[in-house]
């Protein structure tokens, strides 16, 4: 059996892998957002202040104002939760994937993994240009390139209702 979406056929294995990739990334986003939501001491302030690279001034400025920092924290938490939920449920999948790419790009740009930079915050390993954020950005690009919400997800149901 194969799925036919927009005149494109996917084998069961292809559909399973694409949907699993979408859901796993969604879980990562949702979990990170929920953890931050329920941690009363969490703030992005130190992460922003630890920023280096050519955009450091921008990220430092975000942490420099209490009101802006509160807005950044709110948008970060709820962005993670909504992106994760959208990816897991397959609803507004295109918006969720593009939003996820934008958010991860901000993380990447605030802490670029270049050999000449050292950060106060510990990292999971030593990277040179490629880190987990960049890998996840490209994994989301794969999810965005395929109509995974139309293969399995609420997007599929909404499209059936629309006709």
Write a structural description.
- This protein has 163 residues and is mainly alpha-helical.
- It has one domain.
- It is built from eight helices and two strands.
- The protein has helices spanning 12-37, 45-49, 56-64, 66-89, 93-110, 132-145, 148-151, 154-162; strands at residues 2-5, 8-11.
- It has a two-stranded antiparallel ribbon with strand order 1-2.
- A hairpin with a 2-residue loop joins β1 (2-5) and β2.
- α1 crosses α6 and α5 packs antiparallel against α6.
- It starts with a strand and ends with a helix.
Using only CA atoms, what is the Rg?
Answer: 18 Å
The residue-averaged pLDDT reads 91
Major sheet attributes: 2 strands, antiparallel
End-to-end C-alpha gap: 23 Å
Task: Compute the number of strand runs.
Answer: 2
Strand-residue fraction?
under 5%
Question: Helix amount, in percent?
Answer: 55-70%
Strand order of the largest sheet: 1-2
The helix-strand sequence is EEHHHHHHHH
Structural class: mainly alpha
Segments where pLDDT lies below 50 for 5+ residues?
Answer: none
How many H/I helices?
8
How many separate domains?
1
> What is the 3D shape?
globular
What key attributes describe this structure?
mainly alpha, 8 helices, 163 residues, two-stranded antiparallel sheet, single chain
Strand and helix layout:
Elements: E1 2-5, E2 8-11, H1 12-37, H2 45-49, H3 56-64, H4 66-89, H5 93-110, H6 132-145, H7 148-151, H8 154-162
Antiparallel strand pairs: 1-2
